[in-house]
């Protein structure tokens, strides 16, 4: 049951990231057209979209990790008072699990960037500059 809810929240976060990046591309259509006229290659614009997505994801991951660590410290202090020194820490975050989650976040971010990248490829310079 826990896996279902957590996977549902991850899928929802991926859709939200995809929508945010898609809206960024649509809002900055003129910006991308100007970059193309100044000589930017398609690869450079794709890299720009990927960097925006990775920046959003990494920031969210770091914030979530900090909040989770603080929550675990608080929960461990409460449990330690009630159990009275049977164990040092009840909730522990292992570094290899954090690394695995971070790699998963990066892979999901790259998958979420596919639709905005497709939209960047479809931008026509003349139509975008006219609008």
Give the arrangement of secondary structure elements.
Layout: H1 2-27, H2 29-37, H3 42-83, H4 95-112, H5 114-121, H6 125-130
Helix pairs in contact: 1-3, 1-5, 3-4, 3-5
Question: How would you describe what is shown here?
Answer:
With 131 residues, this protein is mostly helical. Helices cover 83% and strands 0% of the residues. The protein contains six helices and no strands. The longest helix is centred in the middle third of the chain and has 42 residues. The model has no long low-confidence stretch (mean pLDDT 85).
Structural class: mainly alpha
Shape: elongated
Q: Tell me what portion of residues adopts beta-strand conformation.
A: under 5%
> Can you write the helix and strand succession as a string?
HHHHHH
Q: Low-confidence spans: pLDDT under 50, at least 5 residues? A: none
Distance between the termini: 49 Å
Number of strands: 0
Count every helix, treating DSSP H or I runs of 4 or more residues as helices: 6
The helix content, as a percent range, equals: over 70%
| Rounded radius of gyration (Å) | 21 Å
Averaged pLDDT:
85
